[in-house]
Amino acid sequence: MIPDFKQTVPIDQIGVEERVARFRTRSIKKESKLFALKLALRMVDLTTLEGMDSPGKVRQLCYKALYPHEIDPEIPQVAAICVYPNHVKLAVETLKGSGIHVASVATSFPSGMGRLESRIDEVKYAVEEGADEIDMVISRWAFLKGDYGYVYDEIAAIKEACGPAHLKVILETGELETYDNVRKASDIAMYAGADFIKTSTGKISPAATMPVTLVMLGAIRDYYIKTGNKVGMKPAGGIRDSKTALHYLVMVKETLGADWLDPDLFRFGASSLANDLLMQIIKQKTGHYQSPDYFSIG
Predict the structure, then answer these.
(1) Which of 45, 135, 187, 276 is an active site residue?
(2) pTM of this structure
(3) Which stretches of the chain score pLDDT less than 70?
(4) What per-residue confidence (pLDDT) applies to 164?
């Protein structure tokens, strides 16, 4: 049964922000840190979503996904790369046999302002080209005027268009104004069929924040308790350093449990994070930092 989204429980803003402050004080023991850094790298979605994206840039991104650090073959690969639909086929061919997922933004990303029919066509095209994950954006204009049924129906329609591909639903939390709205949008997305809920497009500020992510993790926990279905989480945008990434992992474990510490249920949408994770992994293994010049930008 579809819940009444107008009746969601209000979020305690002070409580959320105090809990996040405690997560930021946690430290990971040295013997566990290398494992945590490698896990975080395995959770990264490398992304290029610019108007100047070219086949060469997409190949470079795929190469970085395949070989994060050429000197050390023990460093793990990332979870996925994310590109526009017109680059999906090239990414699929380049990554064939690697196990790295190919995700594609769709549905008039990042604005979400296109006609639903054209947004559905874009999703179908990306899936036909080989995408096994679709990152869609909700219609924030409809959500903010209280038309929750419209948002639910559009997500359900996009989910159907995805076929076998997993659906990540981007809430664009920086435009939702309140934690209550973030919780409500999370609930709508999950009940409409989202496989993942995602904070942001990365195109506006603020993008991912720990308080917003905690609110979304709480929605995932409650949804799992009610339905038995596990939904993934993807904070995206603004996560640039390893220390912050590890704080997110602590928050995930303490809110949802160890099952969610897996790339199938948690991702970072943060390409710039990958190089910092690589630098920290090398530091843990060798005792020395390498220059950023040793790591590719793409």
Answers:
(1) 135
(2) 0.93
(3) 1-2, 7, 70-71, 288-298
(4) 96
Active site residue 198: yes
Cα distance between residue 274 and residue 6, in whole Å: 39
Q: What local confidence, expressed as pLDDT, does residue 78 receive?
A: 95
CA dist 59 → 48, 90, 162 (Å):
11, 8, 25
In the set 45, 64, 198, 276, the catalytic residue is 198
Is residue 135 among the annotated active site residues?
yes
The one catalytic residue among 124, 159, 184, 234:
234
**Domain limits of the chain?**
10-20+29-294
DSSP string spanning 1-61?
----GGGPPPP-HHHHHHHHHHHTT----HHHHHHHHHHHHHTBEEE---TT--HHHHHHH
Beta bridge partners of 264: none
Place domain 10-20+29-294 in its CATH homologous superfamily.
Answer: Aldolase class I (3.20.20.70)
Mark whether 234 is an active-site residue. yes
Quick: pLDDT tens for 76-103: 999 999 999 999 999 999 999 999 999 9
Q: For the segment 8-64, what is each residue's pLDDT rounded down to a tens digit?
A: 778 999 999 999 999 999 888 877 899 999 999 999 999 999 999 999 999 999 999
- Asked if residue 276 lies in contact with residue 242, where contact means CB atoms within 8 angstroms, the answer is yes
Name the token pair of 90. Answer: 């090239």
Cβ(219)–Cβ(185) below 8 Å: no
